[in-house]
Design a protein that fits this description.
Helix content: over 70%
Shape: rod-shaped
Distance between the termini: 104 Å
Strand content: under 5%
Largest sheet: none
Radius of gyration: 32 Å
Number of strands: 0
């Protein structure tokens, strides 16, 4: 019974090692490297897009603050006289 257990354990570990090595070898092939490069570029493009969106949001927020502080939003100062 012990021998059967250790045999099954060895087969399982061997299969896992072969799978890991196969995946590592696939990453080192030209197509595997190209796929990794494509994923990296896609992640970079996503990060740049998110950064741009955050910059635009901050820009609009700051512009609103400046307009309010300088009175360009129409809320500072006297209200214009009504036209009759």
């Amino acid at each position: 019974m012990r021998r059967l257990f250790w045999l099954a354990m060895g087969i399982t570990i061997g299969a896992l090692i072969v799978r890991k090595l196969s995946r590592a070898a696939e990453k080192l092939t030209p197509s595997g490297m190209a796929g990794g490069l494509v994923r990296a570029l896609r992640d970079l493009a996503d990060a740049i897009g998110e950064f741009g969106a955050e910059v635009r949001d901050a820009m609009h927020e700051r512009e609103a603050e400046l307009r309010e502080a300088t009175g360009l939003d129409g809320t500072t100062g006297r209200a214009p006289a009504p036209v009759e």
